[in-house]
Amino acid sequence: MGVANQTSISDFLLLGFSQHPEQQPLLFGLFLAVYLVTVLENLLIILAISSDPRLHAPMYFFLANLSFTDTCFSCTIVPKVLLNIHTQHYTISHTGCLGQLFFFMELALLDDFLPAVMACDRYVAICLPLHYTTIMGPQHCLLLVAASWLSSHLLAFSLCLLMSQFSFCTSQAIPHFCDVPPLLKLACSDTRIFQVTMLTEAVPSGLIPLTCVLVSYAHIIHTILRIPSAGGKCKVFSTCGSRLTVVTLFYGTVFLVYFQPSSSYSADTGMAASVGYTMVTPMLNPFIYSLRNRHMKGALRRLLVHK
Predict the structure, then answer these.
(1) Are 186 and 174 within 8 A, CB to CB?
(2) SS3 label, residue 259
(3) CA distance 160 to 201
(4) Which residues, 6+ apart, have CB-to-CB distance to 23 below 8 Å?
(5) Do the beta carbons of residue 141 and residue 58 sit within 8 Å?
(6) Quick check: 9 pLDDT over 60?
(7) What CA–CA distance (Å, rounded) separates 299 from 305?
């Protein structure tokens, strides 16, 4: 593996999250536990929503899509990490790396778009309740989700297509998994077009969804402040606060990794941040968005009792 002065390579070396052998069993157990919890809770949410007619509403339709996205997101990264630790075989093919990168970016973008759609849904429900059934009709909800999937696919595909044209002629070693910053650091091709494209895509994929989330919750909080019920205010503030916390975690770690020059990329910083948006956020989303909802709790109880 080592350093190679060549224009094309067949494999990358994934260094993993630790180079100390005695830490591997602990990391394997920790990542496996997080993975199982994430997949189980998200699959239960999807089953509960699909099996309970009382949850066939726009909010739960979006929640089911978010749970499906988080399940796929975890399956894109964590199984390969677990396999590497278990087999002590840390290579990934060039094609496999690009494939992992594509699905990782597509699902990460969906994890960006869907919370924005859900924030807009809550804004309409709370601030414009009389128009909710008109604005958030089934066709509009389906269109919003389809647009999120299509946008994520096109944005991720365009970046992966540019990445596939790169030559890698320095070290073949990647710190943890196939992500944009470490691959840019390894590239010996001119990456300026790629970086300009990525920054251009940051507006529709990052700035606009984040603005939708912040503006929606600002309007929700402003509307709730006019309600005399103290209990209602506390409940909404708790819900908004927890959702904004997980959004801050996601955006904070993503900005920490992606919005810095590739030459100054730090493997340690990237590793810590990547754990935040690849493992922690998909695990927290069900707790924040679904498992605190009494209707969802009731549906889960009915699902588990029925089973």
Answers:
(1) yes
(2) coil
(3) 13
(4) none
(5) yes
(6) no
(7) 10
